[in-house]
Amino acid sequence: MFKLPRFHTLFWSLLPPAIVLGVMITAIDLGRRAGLFEPLELLWYDRLLQAESLAAESAPSPSSYVTIVGIEGADLTRYGWPLSDQLLAEAVEKLVAGSAEVVGIDLYRDLEHPPGGEALAAALQHPQVIGIEEQVSGIPPHPALAPAQVGFNDLVLDNDGVVRRSLLFVGSEEEAFYSFALRSALKYLATAKPDAQPLDLVPEQEITIAGHPFAVLRPYSGGYDRLDNGGYQILLNYRSAKLPRISLAELLEGKADPNLIRGRVVLIGSVDPSLKDVFRTPYSSGLREEFMFPGVEVHGTIIQQLLSETLAGTAALQFLSPEGEALWILFWISAGVGVGYVLRRPLWSAMGLVTAELGLIAIAIGSFQMVPVWLPFVSPAIGLFGAWVLVLAYRAYQFQQRQQMVMRLLGQSTSPEVAQALWNKRDTLLKSGKLPGQTLMATILFADLCNFSTISETMDPEILLDWLNQSLDPVTQVVRAHHGIVNKFTGDGFMAVFGLPMARRPQEISQDAQSAVLCAIAIAQLLDSLNEQWQPQGKPQARMRMGIFTGEVTAGSIGGRERMEYGILGDTVNTASRLESWEKDRMDYPCRILIGQSTYEHLCCSEEILAQINCQSWGAQRLKGKAQLVEVYEVIPKSWIAPAPIESPNPVPTPT
């Protein structure tokens, strides 16, 4: 049956972790919107690719679709730069004659480079030839190329200057702009899959090439936070497949392997770094800074990716949907909250955090290598750690609040040892913000100033209060020094308890009784010292009665959350109170200390205590409100007893 109080308790217990969860979700979302995590996410992506590439270097698989005709340094020395139209025309004709499926020319030919202008124009008429233009700088294609033979070779760079994505298409059906790589791939697929629809565009969702869908990048895909995803962009999948390369000289001299030309996409472009057509890739950062890709190889990599995924079914490098990424990050933030709350001990909690972070790393690496999917790593890792830290901060605050509550329950008069003992057992003592009642053995000390009513009649209230505080404040310190608790003040007196709040062993119970008696003696000595100070000031002399009894008590918190105190109840408390007030006028010393039989028995266990005190029996007394007789003893320190005079062996006669 549903009960409201249980629901109320559950609600308040779940509220703190819910708040922590909400704070971290908001912080991570704002961080992603501000682009704070993107540089680290991209660096992590680069490391994943580098690790994959290093693992496959022992047996790299060559590309089965693309070959590069690279214009190398030796070619520049031999043929000069820029290449003449005649040389370029010869290269195109040799590739066409060698049955290249597509001939892509990644060279700007908006200007003539004689001789051979007519020969180049004729060579470019072959339908398998694809040329380039540049949209950003406005460099046009060669005029001999038809519109269907032209693609833009502009590459998109991330903020750190690295090429990680490919822009395939921009514009609309009325004014369409194809990338150089997409034009080349479509030309190849027109033969390989003639019945498939060449291109189908779903705005901001996917681009379908020859029936195969490619997910387009969104602003928050993978590790991107604020990606400019204009047009149709896909994640460039740098795999360990190597693009075969032949030099221009090998092609022109007929030394190239025919198998690297026949039925393939062959791209002609510069590969010598001196021509400045090189780009940073994920392999160029950190571990492999020298690894720069020539532009023609970047385009070849894009073509290889499009063809291998479309024709061979190679797994595409994917990323989660926006909803999937949100759930992924939420899971790890929740894990941080869970680790912080479930594992209470600091060492176990820290080990749990490390285990969770290692699990995140393992899943991120495994999913990239096996699925493959690029999962956000930095934002969930920070969310996991941040949630854990917030939980620890809240628990530290909660720890402080509970400790303050305990000290408030003990009246802020507890000895450090007792307070520490209580706090070490807080989990078993504290239930719903209260100390549950428990029966314990303790020694109770009641104390009261004598004739306080008479003194108060002769003094100004402010002076009286000051005098009273001067009496009771140092007394409290004495109690604490003897490992006791001043549980309550009774106007001109107080009640102290020794042996709480923890269960005590028999030997410790005896020590508590002895501590209470020694505390009473110390208080008496303190009052003697105070009286000596007050006498010249004309202040009243303080006299005190004390009653001490050892036995069972019931201790626990009394009251509510807003107002509670550490209550001690039982017959032992009543007996100690009656001992203090018994026969008030029977006082042979400024301080009278009466104890019961149970306390006296614990004193007999210590020869050290007995050497300091005398215990005078008052016999069995019927204390007020008590049905049974109580054996009463008065404790008198031996220092209070004047030594007996020593008689002279030869007394001097008194003169008459």
Topology of helices and strands:
Elements: H1 4-33, H2 38-56, E1 66-71, H3 73-79, H4 85-97, E2 102-105, H5 117-123, E3 129-133, E4 150-152, E5 165-171, E6 176-178, H6 180-192, E7 199-202, E8 206-209, E9 212-215, E10 232-235, E11 245-247, H7 248-252, E12 265-270, E13 278-280, E14 292-294, H8 295-311, E15 318-319, H9 322-342, H10 346-370, E16 373-374, H11 378-409, H12 416-424, H13 426-429, E17 438-449, H14 452-457, H15 461-481, E18 484-489, E19 493-498, H16 506-534, E20 544-559, E21 564-569, H17 571-581, E22 591-596, H18 597-603, H19 607-610, E23 613-621, E24 630-637
Parallel strand pairs: 1-11, 1-12, 2-3, 2-12, 3-4, 15-16, 20-22
Antiparallel strand pairs: 5-6, 5-10, 7-8, 8-9, 13-14, 17-19, 17-20, 18-19, 20-21, 22-24, 23-24
Helix pairs in contact: 1-9, 1-11, 4-5, 6-8, 9-10, 9-11, 10-11, 15-16, 16-18
What does this structure look like?
By secondary structure, the chain is an alpha/beta fold. 43% of the residues lie in helices and 20% in strands. The chain contains 19 helices and 24 strands.
